[in-house]
Amino acid sequence: MLKLIWLIPVLPLLGVAANGLFGRFMSRRAVAWVACGVVLLSLLLSLGAVTELSGLPESGRHYETELGTWLPLGSLGPGGEGLRIGWGFALDPLSAVLLLVVTGVGFLIHVYATGYMAHEEGYARFFAYMNLFMGMMLTLVLASNLLVMFVGWEGVGLCSYLLIGFFYDRPFDARTGMSCADAGRKAFLTNRIGDFAFLIGMLYLATAFGSLEFRRVSEGIAGGGMPQAVLTGVGILLFVGACGKSAQVPLYVWLPDAMAGPTPVSALIHAATMVTAGVYMVCRMSALYVHAPAAMAVVALIGALTAIFAASMGLAATDIKKVLAYSTVSQLGYMFAGAGVGAFAGSMFHLMTHAFFKALLFLGAGSVIHGMSGEQDIRRMGGLRRKMPATYGTFLVATLAIAGIPGLAGFFSKDEILWGAWSSGHRGVWAVLAAAAGVTAFYMFRLLYLTFFGSFRGTEEQAHHVHESPRVMTVPLMVLAVLSVIGGWIGIPRALALGADVNVFGRWLTPVFVGAGAAGAGEAAAEHAGAGVELGFMALAVAVALAGIGLATVLYRRREGMSERLAEALGPAYRLVRNLYWVDELYDALVIRPFYALCRAARAFDVGIVDGAVNGVRHVTVGLSHVSNANDRWLVDGLVNLVGATVRGASFVFRRVQTGVVQSYAAMMVFGVFLLLIIYTLAR
């Protein structure tokens, strides 16, 4: 199976070709079978390859294959080694984790989408885009070098544009007046900012090491010789790229608007594919970041700020999908903060568990929207747990998991990041992340209560229509609910296991980070801290989460109307959060409007100065041509024509004389003689 890893991203691309070219001639059932079938084959192939990889010795768990030379770029200056970029794929423990997450969760989302999109137009086009998304993400995951990764990196950006704007002719946000097509364009343009920085960082690495292969770059960094300032600069440039792809401050603004796409798209982007790419890349480049502590500090700082900032935005949001979108941004902040403090394995662990419960939350939200005839405002829901029991039960599991309740997946992975932050000495990062955990628990249970508890607040038509989703949608929810419960048990910390090393996930990833020269500062420090201290902080984190749940219960379950009174009492502070800190408006004032003004100024310069100068030259040239034409036509031609006319007139006269008839000449001569005699006689 390892020899066939190149086929894993190719299979979804075959689905793109089938549904993209022939989908309009196929039945919806056939389109669904093709779309889900190719992803299922990728999943089975991935399982086989990872199983074979796990059978290799721990130090040799790396398989690489190259399909051919892509770019033979030659040497980098005099004496430099040749730079050659191959089209290659590689599988190691790190890529194996994301590979299984992408194919496994992606397959469940595809199955769910066959039911969710059953009555929508553009069915084949939708699944062609979804397969393309999978193919590009799998290319990114399995890439053996940065440039092939960049192909997948750009590919998922393109797919997000296509899928977010899938309902391109529908309005999306009444507050900003944005359409679905605008949201897709916003995602595409915002990502380009980060991609530009990523590209520059990649070029620096290519010139420094003569290679873009991950192994050679990691070995080169570990070998030393690269100036610290350059390492820091490259680390920050790559992280800016990650900020764009994974929606971190300040480039997070596109992700909430990605809700314009169909809900399965939101689940795919937020849980299994695009937004995890930045976290994966930072962990993949762990050797670089460990040798650039300043860049790591930036990663930790931005991650922690994003975690609390985005979590606060979920406090007052009323769109069920947007609450989950802010939650995604916040949880991605957790992952980056974990990587920033050196807990790379913890970061990847949270990426995996987050994929389970976040996909479940989005698909659950989609089930609610489906049952509510398209309604997304949680203020017009309520009491749905009786009418949608399967959706409610699975949604509750995911809510408990993301809140960090012990025993569920989110508890283990979130705790590993929190403990990594504390034990590595980043106490400020720990405090911010702990606070974000409490805020997360609060807004997630607010969402749960407003959606599934209390009395129904929708219209009579909605009340009559609301129903549980079909099994093709609820079965994936149940599978994800099981994963959200048991998914964390492969990463049980040593403190909870009474000192036994049962953390399978940590052991699986250790060779990657150690082999790259990145032992993981957080994990290394955690090894030396006491189990009692870790248990104490674990209990503290759980207490914070329970406090958040308790506050939500009081405000939205026990004391009716109290949340409205509290919002009124908070006044400006509530309106600040309710309007999302006016960040979009701030962007509009500081970036969009100046950008448009700059565009208008550039246009005015182009039209008034550049085009004016060109047009001026044109007018002068045309004027001179007219003068030249007049001179040529009236003066030169006039003189020439005058000479001709004169000669022609003279010829007319002389032609009467020069007849060639001798008799005429003799008569004229006699006439002349007589004329001369007359003149002579008269003159005398």
Helix residue percentage: over 70%
In DSSP terms (H or I, runs of 4 or more residues), the helix count works out at 28
- What is the CA-CA span between the terminal residues? 139 Å
Q: Can you count the beta strands?
A: 4
Poorly predicted parts: none
Q: Mean pLDDT, nearest integer?
A: 89
Keywords:
two-stranded antiparallel ribbon; 4 strands; two-stranded antiparallel sheet; mainly alpha; 684 residues
Secondary structure: elements and pairs:
Layout: H1 7-22, H2 28-54, E1 63-75, E2 82-91, H3 93-116, H4 123-142, H5 146-164, E3 171-173, E4 178-179, H6 180-209, H7 214-222, H8 228-245, H9 254-257, H10 263-272, H11 276-284, H12 286-290, H13 293-313, H14 320-340, H15 344-371, H16 384-387, H17 389-403, H18 409-423, H19 427-452, H20 460-465, H21 471-486, H22 504-515, H23 521-528, H24 531-558, H25 562-570, H26 572-578, H27 583-657, H28 662-683
Antiparallel strand pairs: 1-2, 3-4
